[in-house]
Amino acid sequence: MTLTVVDMHTGGEPLRIVSGGYPDIPKGTILEKRAYVRDHLDHLRKILMFEPRGHYDMYGALLVEPDLPGADLAVLFMHNEGYSTMCGHAIVALGRYAVDERLVAPREPLTTVNIEAPCGLISAAVEVRDGKAGAVSFESVPAFLFARDRRIELPGYGPVGFDIAYGGAFYALADCRQFGLEFGRNRVRDFVDAATALTNKLKAELRLSHPDHADLAFLYGTILTDGQDAFSDTPTKNICVFAEAEVDRSPTGSGVTARLAAMHAKGQIEIGRARLFESIAGSRFSGAVARTATAGPHDAIIARVGGRAYYSGRAEFIVEDDDELGSGFLLR
């Protein structure tokens, strides 16, 4: 078995793009492809994401044949727990990758790359100069505030207020100060424990729904913020803990989209105003509400999120027949 990959990172968050070695995926919708890969090829995800080739917080992308009209490429996202529905940092990286690999013909000064994700069609705008790709911004699917100003009693922390918003995936949004946390003072582990506790509690007690498909209606994780939601020229900081307590090193593209949806619904940011979002690693994404929209019964927005992606390597991975740990393992 040989698997080839291209490694990139966006704002410090890794993206391992599969460039060869996967078998053909049967035709169907993107959600049907996601289900097939999950049910029949999950051993390949573990080989690429888990140790000894990956790590607990690795993230990956598998390009598949698009099904939607107008899509230049389609992608399935993978991580330590399984397969997500949207990933903004991956879209930024894939936009650059698509231009560099000539999956789309480059045009200066902007090249549009339409990427089909499990949540829908994402339009990425790639800056191109002298034939080379640079910064990337994208407009995602309609994002909306699902639950506003809720409270829950969280064991070990007491009463906690939160919102739930959809930005291609559902996130709980909560001010970290409620947990006695402060960016720059507490350990990342403290944020992970608090976010995971809230995610697990809400998964057990709160039912989500999405107007397009039941497969999209699950809580992907929790984003703890600095509480600075009202518009300001100062960046607002957050940490996203998703999947199986995985930590996003970037500000989280789908998370920024969800935060913008919540901010706009609460009158905290107006259409066209850009805001900077900063990650736990100090990297930044720009975010703005491009326009309003609808998602079934929900008032929604189309967000525009931007960042930069960089290459970090190319690799060929093998699995030897007698390697007892070669199929992958995780330590935390």
Query: Residue ranges: pLDDT <50 for 5 or more in a row?
Result: none
CA-atom Rg in angstroms: 19 Å
Q: Report the oligomer.
A: single chain
Kindly identify the CATH topology of the largest domain. Answer: Diaminopimelate Epimerase, Chain A, domain 1
Beta-strand residue percentage: 35-45%
Structural class: alpha+beta
The second-level CATH architecture of the largest domain is Roll
The CATH class of the largest domain, by name, is: Alpha Beta
- What is the β-strand count? 17
List the secondary-structure elements in sequence, H or E.
EEHHEEHEEEEEEHEEEHEEEE
Sheet having the most strands: 17 strands, mixed
Distance between the termini: 27 Å
Which superfamily, in CATH terms, is the homologous superfamily of the largest domain?
Diaminopimelate Epimerase, Chain A, domain 1
**Whole-number average pLDDT?**
97
Tell the overall outline: globular
Number of helices: 5
**Helix percent band:** 10-25%
